[in-house]
Design brief:
The chain is of the alpha/beta class. The chain has 16 helices and 13 strands. The protein folds into 2 domains: 127 residues, Rhodanese-like domain (Oxidized Rhodanese, domain 1, 3-Layer(aba) Sandwich), CATH 3.40.250; 231 residues, Rossmann fold, CATH 3.40.50. The longest helix has 24 residues.
Amino acid sequence: MAAPIHVTAEPWLHTYSEIIDVRSPAEYAEDHWPGAINLPVLDDAERAEVGTLYKQVDPFTARKRGASLVAQNIARHLQTHFADKDRDYHPLIYCWRGGQRSASLALVLSKVGWQVTVLQGGYKTYRAWVRRQLQTLPQQFTYRVLCGPTGSGKTLLLHYLHQQGAQVLDLEELACHRGSLLGAEWGKPQPSQKSFESQLVQVFLKWDPAKPVWVEAESAKVGQLHLPPALWQGLTQADCIEVQLPLEERVKGLIAHYPHWIAHPQALKEKLLPLKARYGQARLQRWFELIDAQDWPQFVRELLLQHYDPTYQHGLQRNFNRIRARLELPDLSETTLKKAATYLLEGQFEVGLTGIPALQSPSPSLAWTLRLR
């Protein structure tokens, strides 16, 4: 006997054996419900073929061809993915709008006898929910923002804070970009804006609003991805800790963390070309000469002093001016970073000072300084 097909517009209130996205692989790759699997009833080429028939021939011919392709694909999924599912299996299925594609698979699975739920409105319902969450979720949290010039170890410090149990929002990891001109991850494209936002929602939902979220200062964009307005507002209004590191340690660390640019000097030059309008041909040529000479320490030193550091100071004054503590690191060794993470979590921003709440100073213009040795 066929089981009834359920429909829901609030699937996050229930649990399912599996969440199935029946859209094409390209649609799925752009964004999908985190954890959903892709069992397309039409692949990309088939979907394009049916769409062309609909526009250039007639809807009836398109539906007939589409039904044939959908039947073949569902049969293949039954013989493979669904072959070992027991009778208690109860999936959630969605397509773009909760229409024919999800209904097709739901009908067949219900005929087998499985309890099937279809997402009303499909992916568009999920996407609307993500947008609503991003308007409110970020406002529920208190942020501790790590500021500091490029190469000062902020990202590494976040990793050690995470190891010690802190709630850490690593925007650069989620965005697959280090947030600067040369910050693109080599060979790894950024996710779509929609996928980035889906990941953000899942991260926030796992956290406790009673605990602070540690995050690195970023601009309103990380690479090509925009931060949700509510999150950006929360970051720019948060108390900040400025991480400082000696210039030569920054140079050494950046050379170690960006080997792909050293291995691809021509690509590095092309990436620097947009800076010509700001600094002129002479300075750009100087940087190119250092690249050709493979004088990486001097190249990184000059790029920091002439471009990155002034840019950082401008962004700090404009967006992250609530500095409550400064953390001076001697190096980026594991010992130093572990110790720094411990101090930050315990709120020990000034040796010998006790009874002072974390991140509070006598005046907004003053900050405690901790020098690690």
